[in-house]
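[Meeting: bench + compute handoff]

Bench side (C.D.) handed over the final construct sequence. Compute side (W.E.) agreed to return the predicted structure before the next meeting so the bench team could plan truncations. Sequence as handed over:
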Amino acid sequence: MRRKLSPSFEEEGESEPLINLTPLIDVVFVVLISFMLIAPVLDIDLVELAPGGPSSKQETSNTPLAISVRADNSIWFQGRQMNLTDLEKTLKIEKGRHPGQTPQFIPDKNAHFGTYQAVKNTLELCGFTQMDVLLQPQ
């Protein structure tokens, strides 16, 4: 009777352990489906960038609801300087005249953020739900 010898380690060669990719693929699919379900629900804020040039400033000032803040934090509406209480009264009147209009806010880069927040809060008090922020190039 001949005995069968088991193959030695060198004859068989080194075998690498198998990596199970199924859990990784499952997790990737769950994350992908989550993003697909959540993406339509997200409200993404858009910032409209104003093109440079003097003609664009004239176009924005002719829109019914253009509010600008200058470097000295003064608030201007339709070419007239106003404080917040006058702006609130004027915006309430303009909301009645132009109910579907979206106000345009044009801040100076040197203006304080508090002035932006005050104008934004005033717009919300007057019943506006959206505003366009127009940034001017340097």
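W.E. noted at the follow-up: The helical segments are 9-12, 22-38, 54-61, 84-97, 113-125. C.D. will use this when planning the next construct.
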